[in-house]
Amino acid sequence: MNLVIALDCEMVGSGNRSILAKVSVVDEDGRVLLNCFVEPTDTVTDYRSSVHGITARDLEDGESFDTVQRYVAEWLKGRILVGHSLDFDLGVLNLSHPDRNKRDFAKHPMFMKNGQPRSLKDLAREHLNKNIQEGHHDSLEDARTCMELFKKFDRHW
């Protein structure tokens, strides 16, 4: 059983809040456990396509939010969760996870600068010599990058 998973989500805007548009979960080897678009739970007012490339067409045949939430909740049970700004991802999924089982690169002092989180793009370039998010953000690429970073630095947690 994989004891560590990485999660990343992409979001769209609905009024003044963010709602889930895509979710990606990978195992310790970067294998996809879940990677899908999610049917909006409310009217989308801003697709934020310039950030992640997601369009209305992508979400038309998305999985239901309830189904995706259930899958992610199952994957979380008893596992270490790796990611960058996990509170945002868990928030749009309406899920929680114990802090002791989170490995968040946006909150670990070793990966911050002047007390502020650094972007995943900068961390990947500096620590993995890898360029990500060229063009658009991709939740699958980001989840895999977080897992790579975790495997390199897991002893620091």
From TrEMBL:
Domain Exonuclease as annotated: residue spans: 3-157
GO annotation (BP), single: rRNA processing
Pfam families cross-referenced by the UniProt entry: RNase_T (PF00929)
CDD domains from the UniProt entry: REX4_like (cd06144)
GO molecular-function terms, A-Z: 3'-5' exonuclease activity; nucleic acid binding
Major site of localization recorded for this protein: nucleus
Keywords, sorted A to Z: Exonuclease, Hydrolase, Nuclease, Nucleus, rRNA processing
Alphabetical list of InterPro entries matching this protein: REX4_DEDDh_dom, REXO1/3/4-like, Ribonucl_H, RNaseH-like_sf, RNaseH_sf
Location(s) in or outside the cell: Nucleus
One GO term describing the cellular component: nucleus
Coiled-coil residue spans: none
Family: Belongs to the REXO4 family.
Described purpose of this protein according to its UniProt entry: Exoribonuclease involved in ribosome biosynthesis. Involved in the processing of ITS1, the internal transcribed spacer localized between the 18S and 5.8S rRNAs.
UniProt-recorded name of the protein: RNA exonuclease 4
Protein's organism: Danaus chrysippus
